[in-house]
Amino acid sequence: MDWTWKNPLPEEGRKISFVGKGGSAKSTTLAHLVRYWKAMGIPAVAHDADDSDGPEEPGSLLAWAEMLPVHSDGLGAPVYRAPAAPSLRAEMDRLRPPHGLSLVDTKAWDRGKHNSHLAAIRASDLLVLALYPSGMEKWRGASILGAMDEVESMSGHRPRVVCLLTRFKKGVGAAGEVRKELENEGLYVLKAEIPANESKTGYSQSFGTVPRLKANSDMHELAKELLVEATR
């Protein structure tokens, strides 16, 4: 298959951060996305800001990249340990490829002033909020909007935010109900969704492997949709 996709990104590229609670599939989703963007001809770099296990331990995205064979092209994009929060925006700008993406994988959502989340909001053009479709997620959406209000009041910058529903069982009504609740709150929910897949070849079991590409899969559709959203 010809994976080529007309690159819609401007010369200065775009910066996208992924946020959400622990276990919301941020790292898994991002690992697969960079593989798809590589196949589609979209250059990218990723910054792992997940220091949940301590600043000396690699976050899951960086650990994943380091597990892959050296003779392979890895995840399809270089993965770097993110710098301290005050330097995040400058580093994202410095490493962002022309007409490409500079991506951040954050740790579990926490709006504390000394972690990477407020820095990721300040640095990004687009914020992807990964949400498991449960009743609590409406509250999490309100929390991140509150953090964005805080960043905007301090810096005048407010990135576009989109919600991504993840890790749910297809055919269960909860995802649709949460989608409606979020939309009623004025949040934009991506059409693409990433359901739970516990099979041997599914997303949930793919850590440490080279993500597989499948045309028109959930992840492929998400890769295309995010490119459109990044240029709005």
Could you explain how this protein is built, in words?
Helix content is 35%, strand content 16%. It is α/β, with parallel strands linked by helices. It has a 7-stranded parallel β-sheet, with helices on both faces. α1 (26-39) crosses α2. The mean pLDDT is 85.
Please give the structural blueprint.
Blueprint: E1 14-20, H1 26-39, E2 44-49, H2 60-67, E3 79-81, H3 88-95, E4 101-106, H4 116-123, E5 126-131, H5 136-155, E6 160-165, H6 174-184, E7 188-189, H7 218-230
Helix pairs in contact: 1-2, 1-7, 3-4
Question: Average pLDDT, to the nearest integer?
Answer: 85
Cα distance spanning the termini: 28 Å
- Total helical elements: 7
Structural class determined from secondary elements: alpha/beta
The largest sheet is: 7 strands, parallel
Task: Estimate percent helicity.
Answer: 25-40%
User: Spatial order of the strands in the main sheet?
Assistant: 3-2-4-1-5-6-7
What's the alpha carbon Rg, rounded to whole Å?
Answer: 16 Å
